[in-house]
Amino acid sequence: xxxxxxxxxxxxxxxxxxxxxxxxxxxxxxxxxxxxxxxxxxxxxxxxxxxxxxxxxxxxxxxxxxxxxxxxxxxxxxxxxxxxxxxxxxxxxxxxxxxxxxxxxxxxxxxxxxxxxxxxxxxxxxxxxxxxxxxxxxxxxxxxxxxxxxxxxxxxxxxxxxxxxxxxxxxxxxxxxxxxxxxxxxxxxxxxxxxxxxxxxxxxxxxxxxxxxxxxxxxxxxxxxxxxxxxxxxxxxxxxxxxxxxxxxxxxxxxxxxxxxxxxxxxxxxxxxxxxxxxxxxxxxxxxxxxxxxxxxxxxxxxxxxxxxxxxxxxxxxxxxxxxxxxxxxxxxxxxxxxxxxxxxxxxxxxxxxxxxxxxxxxxxxxxxxxxxxxxxxxxxxxxxxxxxxxxxxxxxxxxxxxxxxxxxxxxxxxx
Length: 416
Description:
Elements: H1 2-15, H2 21-36, E1 41-46, E2 49-59, E3 63-64, E4 67-68, H3 77-84, E5 97-104, E6 115-123, E7 127-134, H4 141-152, E8 157-160, H5 163-177, E9 187-190, H6 191-199, H7 208-216, H8 229-239, H9 243-270, H10 278-290, H11 294-305, H12 310-327, H13 330-340, H14 348-361, H15 365-380, H16 395-415
Parallel strand pairs: 5-8, 8-9
Antiparallel strand pairs: 1-2, 2-7, 3-4, 5-6, 6-7
């Protein structure tokens, strides 16, 4: 009886009518692979086994937002030094650069977070290559990391968006846990840092989505929210649901393509081209002064000072005045501060700067007192829910200045 049962089971296994656990796992893996991206996805062999990747080729004429990918060919490292504040990037070559963006199981980082989708992009001769490594099963992580590590080593520069603080450190942690050498690019351009330096005064948010909509002319349709991505991946692991995981691939691909067009836009702005907003000329003026490019910086700030957007014009005038103050060019600085006072919403710090000038440079305590009292009145008129002033424009600092000036005036009068 037992032999009959065993014999019958063997026949069913051979015929494929029933499957062993291993056969089921293999067939499930094949079916999931085929369901994802037929013709685009493939398996590659590594020293740690097989891993899955998807590759897409985009012609450089591919339109992404309001420009094409071909703009990357015009980018040069010299222009990127200014917005990145990194002199080493003068050697950046877009043809030797690797774009990187990862999708993860969480935003906290650390050893408990996986990078389940690693997106890469780079220039080939006549197209832009986009590769995505996908972690079908946790056991394949070492294979994916092995292949990624070897690929990244071929490039001298890495380009990311918040990659210095998140993407690259996360991958380095996973590489360390897998016993692999950590990826350490010779040059690393983080476009988020450039965005913060260029558009802090123009955009309320410097997220990639905000930059796409306001700067790059791109509207994402039916894109998956980033907060949902970890859950979508876990649904894939538990139930093999491939529908929404495809949206994650699309989301990742858009991130990489947007970094390409963002690189072009940052390069243009840094070179003083295609300026669209006074906030951009203000940012360039500050960056140029900080970099020692004084004539350029003064030019950008003077241009901004003529803007119809009063807060930006005032900031530009203040920046110029502080520059001349550092040089000891007091006539220019005072002239600019006094010009700022013509604005109805002049910043109290202007009055304090003039008070310091009249007290310490001119020994004109009466005018210094007048300026300090004007600063105090300005702060007292601020709306009640405005943040409290700090530093030299705090009420405590102003009251101390008033007390000192009144004492000096009294001493002068008494002495006279």
